[in-house]
Design brief:
The protein is α/β, with parallel strands linked by helices and 901 residues long. The protein contains 34 helices and 26 strands. Pfam families: AAA_30, MobA_MobL.
């Protein structure tokens, strides 16, 4: 008989969280362990006493070594198997499983930190694995803390002191390591973020100030936006920074995505697409356009879909078309639940992003040219991770499809990669909100989706749907009264109460249920064990599914009503799914839930906003509370079909102005490309050049705002060090070149502008010479002018980039059909170059394009760059000459060593 019946895990809980939030985090991770190994898991949280380290919050988690079955403890869990058995059955070894658990803990902890509004993050990797020489801070256990408090010598204390001294020396030698820590969480940051990262490694105030000055004067630091000050010299907006490495990573990511979007070879024949449409006659036109977009020739495509716009139905149709063409379709998402949801809703076999990365690192699951790789919820993926997936699909010659909404939940780690990529490659958009029945509510949903919270709230306030009470408790009472009143008026309508805090969820569920029980609406009560403790259910109770299950045919967020209570089973009648095709199929469907096998359920009267992101109901009721932001408001105010009421306690928000201000707060992640467009940083090719152009000569540090200007006449020691280091570096700096201020224009808009100008030019030519032409020649001109329309209307499909360029070429030089032209076929980019020469005539060859014997190869420029040049040349000869002179001046400046090309 085994002497050991349980295995213990000890985890350090972030001290930034509240006691309630730490309990939620420990419960979430414990539930993950139970689900992963089928074991019984218990946890206990230990908080520090007043005399110990106030940050020493930790949890002890006990997991049985054997699986739990209906008859008791069964076989050993996989975690207890010997490695020989694990390898024989193709399972990860104990070491691999432990690493996966560390990564799972990172995900749970960071998710709870982000949900609580904190910027701090943890990383399961060691500093050595991340290439950092800074010694990590160690969590001092409760026993070591108590020994130190009693004056005893503790080896870990000595290690901490040694580590602090090593950190000071390491940062003095390589201050950019601190910037690596910061950019693990944010692509763009301010000096407060640098200070927080330093505080984790250095405790001594004097050493902290010295190290802070060294980091802020590092040559790796790039100032993206200067500090804004009022007329008194006080800072109104902090300067925003990034690093050269992060600028290059995000620029390279977008550069590669653009090249993939410009290349072809992964299209689907129209007959396969139309066949998938025929199976779903309810598809809206924008859904059909999205399917055509992702099944086009491009190797990188994106779809941005608002909440309730039908992304899953669109992907199902696209999958059928891809598979009919012979492609293998793979799916991925950041979280396991999202990956499972993608597979359930679209039929695309899916895994987590981490699982794909692990397989690739071990030579398994490699992609090939005949693959289509779909990433769902792409808005939650960080820049570093999405860059790896773009690189891998590009290397394999596969096609990448990104689907998401950049305004919903934000990435936990650095960057907003999905938004950055879609802004440069374009996207199909599903913006027709189908969930709400009233037109003004659909307009309000658009406002919330665009983070125009003030407009969205104003619409509901104007229709009397926002109610203020004196306290949050009174607001909860008003919600209960509204729920019961609406239920009496229309018993068949589905209802759901949404709130940000789990404590409010529990309170509202219990209160509404008590009201219904007192009125005799519930009968035959019975207690059941769920993953979150015991719950009592009765016939007539509302039921909320909290996990996808293929055998049951249910998804996370589905709602229903309990129709029968049996031993070990709950019979639930579903309300109906969201999609038009699913609704007719699922509405009224009866599901028998075996509670011993499926325990992820709860009462369905109230739930958190996070858990509601799959739900659709007739009426919803939202409790506003502190900690909500514009992203949560977007989800909460778009779950309903018929109506929503927003209830507010004045102890949370005093009035409408405070409510708008609180819910308008957006924790939207930034990328360096947000500032590249404003400050002239190139996306492709000349990335380091841009930093030098804007911020100084080669090898020079970036300007650090003068602390004396920020803090008035008193200059701190840190400020003085920063100022002196900055002055030393600025002494040899040349003035920065002027920064372009024009906004970025998409490729599609630029092509449209070229087409419009071409039409204007042809019209002008016709006006000048049409009257003098014989009739046959006039007909030929008219035929050329209509070539574009024929290309666009061909077979009812939107013309590709190549087709539109062909139409421009036909207009300028005449049709090529019937010619005996044996010249090699030109690429799209070569045709753009040839078209520009025909439109504008031979132009002076730029010095940067001249090639000499032994010279480096000329960098191949993207279509976007060439279109920009073509547009510039079509303005006026004077402006064109002025632009060329500026380019020659930059080249001369480069030759003088002003910046690195």
């Amino acid at each position: 008989m085994d002497a050991r019946v349980a295995r213990e895990f000890e985890v350090a809980l972030p001290h930034e969280l509240t006691p309630e939030q730490r309990i939620d985090l420990a419960r979430s991770f414990s539930q993950d362990l139970a689900d992963r190994y089928g074991a019984a898991v218990d946890f206990a949280i230990h908080s520090p006493s007043g005399e110990t380290d106030i940050r020493n919050h930790h949890a002890h988690i006990l997991m049985t070594t054997r699986e739990v079955t209906s008859s008791g403890l069964g076989d050993k869990t996989q975690f207890e198997w010997r490695n020989a058995r694990l390898l024989a059955e193709g399972l990860p070894t104990s070491h691999m499983q432990l690493r996966d658990l560390r990564q799972a803990w990172e995900h749970h902890a960071n998710e709870h930190l982000a949900r609580a509004g904190h910027h701090e993050r943890i990383d399961h990797r060691s500093h050595e694995a991340r290439g950092l020489e800074i010694a990590p801070t160690q969590h001092m256990g409760v026993h070591a803390t108590e020994m130190q408090r009693r004056g005893m010598d503790v080896s870990r204390v000595r290690l901490e002191e040694d580590a602090a001294r090593q950190n000071v020396q390491s940062i003095r030698e390589k201050p950019e390591q601190v910037l690596d820590l910061v950019t693990g969480e944010k692509s763009v940051f301010d000096r407060h973020d640098v200070a927080r990262a330093l505080h984790r490694a250095i405790d001594d105030p004097q050493e902290f100030q010295n190290a802070f000055a060294q980091v802020m004067a590092s040559g790796e630091l790039v100032e993206l936006r200067c500090e804004a000050q009022d007329r008194h010299g006080h800072a109104t907006e902090l300067a925003r920074y990034s690093t050269r490495e992060m600028i290059e990573l995000e620029a390279g990511m977008v550069d590669r995505a653009v090249r993939m979007a410009e290349s072809g070879g992964h299209g689907v024949e129209g007959r396969h697409v139309e066949r998938s449409f025929a199976a779903r006659t309810w598809l809206a036109e924008e859904q059909r356009e999205a399917v055509r977009h992702v099944t086009g020739e491009e190797r990188c495509a994106a779809v941005v879909g608002l909440a309730g716009a039908g992304k899953s139905t669109m992907l199902t149709s696209a999958r059928e078309a891809w598979e009919a063409q012979g492609y293998r379709v793979h799916g991925a998402a950041l979280a396991g639940k999202a990956a499972e949801g993608l597979e359930e809703s679209s039929g695309i076999a899916s895994r987590t992003l981490a699982s794909w990365e692990y397989g690739w690192a071990n030579g398994r699951g490699q992609l090939s040219k005949g693959d289509v790789f779909v990433i769902d919820e792409a808005g939650m993926v960080s820049s570093r991770q999405l860059a790896r997936f773009i690189e891998e699909t590009d290397r394999a010659g596969a096609k990448l499809v990104l689907v998401g909404d950049p305004q919903q939940l934000q990435p936990i780690q650095a960057g907003a990669a999905f938004r950055a990529v879609t802004e440069h490659i374009g996207f199909a958009e599903l913006e027709e909100v189908r969930r709400q029945r009233e037109g003004w509510q659909r307009e309000a949903s658009h406002d919330f989706a665009r983070l125009r919270v003030s407009e969205g709230l104003s619409a509901y306030e104007g229709h009397g749907a926002i109610r203020f009470e004196e306290t949050r408790e009174a607001a909860r009472g008003a919600i209960v009264a509204a729920v019961m009143r609406d239920h009496d008026a229309k018993p068949e309508a589905s209802q759901l109460v949404l709130t940000h805090r789990r404590a409010d969820v529990r309170e509202l569920n219990e209160t509404i249920r008590d009201e219904r029980r007192e009125r005799g609406e519930l009968e035959n009560e019975r207690a059941y064990r769920t993953n979150d403790g015991e719950r009592v259910f009765a016939i007539g109770d509302r039921f909320l599914f909290l996990e996808n299950d293929r055998d049951l045919g249910v998804k996370n967020g589905m709602l229903g009503t309990v129709g029968a209570i049996r031993d070990g089973e709950i019979v639930v009648r579903l309300d109906g799914a969201q999609g038009p095709g699913q609704e007719a199929q699922d509405k009224g469907r009866v599901v028998t839930v075996p509670v011993a096998e499926y325990d992820k359920f709860d009462h369905g009267y109230a739930t958190t906003i996070h858990k509601s992101q799959g739900a659709t109901v007739d009426r919803s009721y939202v409790l506003a509370s502190g900690g909500m932001d514009s992203h949560l408001a977007y989800v909460a105010m778009t779950r309903h079909r018929d109506g929503v009421q927003l209830h507010v306690g004045r102890d949370d928000f005093a009035d409408m102005k405070a409510l708008v201000t609180g819910l308008s707060h957006a924790n939207t992640k930034e990328t360096t490309l947000d500032y590249a467009t404003r400050r002239g940083i190139e996306v492709e090719g000349r990335r380091m050049e841009s930093a030098e152009r804007l911020f100084g000569g080669e090898g020079q540090a970036i300007r650090v705002p003068d602390a004396a200007e920020r803090e008035g006449p008193k200059e701190s020691h840190t400020a003085r060090l920063v100022r002196e280091m900055r002055e030393d570096r600025e002494a040899a700096r040349e003035p920065p070149l002027p920064v372009p201020t024009s906004e970025r224009v998409s490729v599609a808009d630029r092509i449209a502008a070229l087409e419009a100008r071409a039409q204007e030019r042809v019209a002008a030519e016709r006006t000048a010479g049409e009257r003098a032409m014989p009739a046959p020649e006039r007909a030929e001109v008219t035929g050329r002018d209509q070539a574009m329309g024929r290309a666009q209307e061909s077979e009812g499909e939107r013309p590709t980039l190549a087709q539109r360029l062909d139409a421009l070429r036909t207009r300028d030089v005449g049709p090529t059909e019937g010619r005996n032209d044996d010249r090699p076929k030109l690429s799209v980019t070569e045709r753009i170059e040839a078209l520009s020469e025909r439109v504008e005539g031979p132009r002076e060859r730029e010095p940067s394009q001249e090639r000499e014997t032994g010279a480096e190869p000329v960098r191949k420029r993207s279509i976007e760059e060439r279109l920009a040049e073509l547009q510039a040349r079509q303005i006026t000869p004077e402006e064109r000459e002025r632009s060329r002179e500026q380019e020659r001046e930059r080249d001369r400046d480069r030759d003088r060593g002003g910046y690195e090309r």
